[in-house]
Amino acid sequence: TPLRLGSLAAEGQAGAGGSEAHLRRLLIPALATWDPDADNGKGAAKRLVVAEKTLLAGPRADLSPLSQTLVEARLLSRGRDTLEVAHEALLRIPPIAAWLDEDREFLMWRDRTAKARAAYEANARGPLGGRGRGVAGGWRGTGGATAVLGEAGAACRRARHRRPPRRGLRR
């Protein structure tokens, strides 16, 4: 039930000496985000699985006692080397739901940026690098590539011959 989960979250943060600010730093954006494509395009909160060492490194090391308390309260789940929010319902109760709503635009921007970066890297920085080069290379050995490229080249040559002469730019 949402009320029970909310009270457990409050107990968990109080037991670890954490404040709401600590809980927010722990959860958003590392363990919870906003998925704009969920719920038929309406969007919904989404749990993330994160490497525990990465999550609790550097300036976030002070969040380790809070994360341990939340694991013991079964609000976070610990995998082999990972942490995640144990119940999706936690993301729909105050104050977590309000935080996700406040940060929704940023979280959607971050998601779009990550997807664009992944697509860019998958294409190895351009249409003729990486995957694109493999596709083009596969076509090169077939007669189809010559036919397609030959048609394109012929079309360009025909267009070049049909152009009217340029005027007014004599030296």
SSE blueprint and pairings:
Blueprint: H1 2-15, H2 20-27, E1 32-35, E2 44-47, E3 50-51, H3 52-55, H4 64-72, E4 76-78, E5 82-85, H5 96-102, H6 104-122, H7 131-140, H8 143-162
Helix pairs in contact: 1-4
Could you describe the 3D structure shown?
The chain has about 170 residues and is mainly α. About 55% of the residues lie in helices and about 10% in strands. The chain has eight helices and five strands. The protein has helices spanning about 1-15, 20-25, 50-55, 65-70, 95-100, 105-120, 130-140, 145-160; strands at about 30-35, 45, 50, 75-80, 80-85. It has a three-stranded antiparallel β-sheet. Strands 1-2 form a two-stranded antiparallel sheet. Helix 1 packs across helix 4 (about 65-70). The relative contact order is 0.12. The model has no long low-confidence stretch (mean pLDDT about 75).
What is the 3D form? globular
Radius of gyration: 27 Å
Q: How many beta-strand elements?
A: 5
In helices, the fraction of residues equals 40-55%
Number of helices: 8
Structural class based on helices, strands and sheet pairing: mainly alpha
- Sequence of secondary-structure elements: HHEEEHHEEHHHH
Q: In what order do the strands lie side by side in the largest sheet?
A: 3-5-4
Distance between the termini: 83 Å
Task: Specify the biggest β-sheet.
Answer: 3 strands, antiparallel
Mean pLDDT: 77
Salient structural properties:
171 residues, mainly alpha, 8 helices, three-stranded antiparallel sheet, two-stranded antiparallel sheet
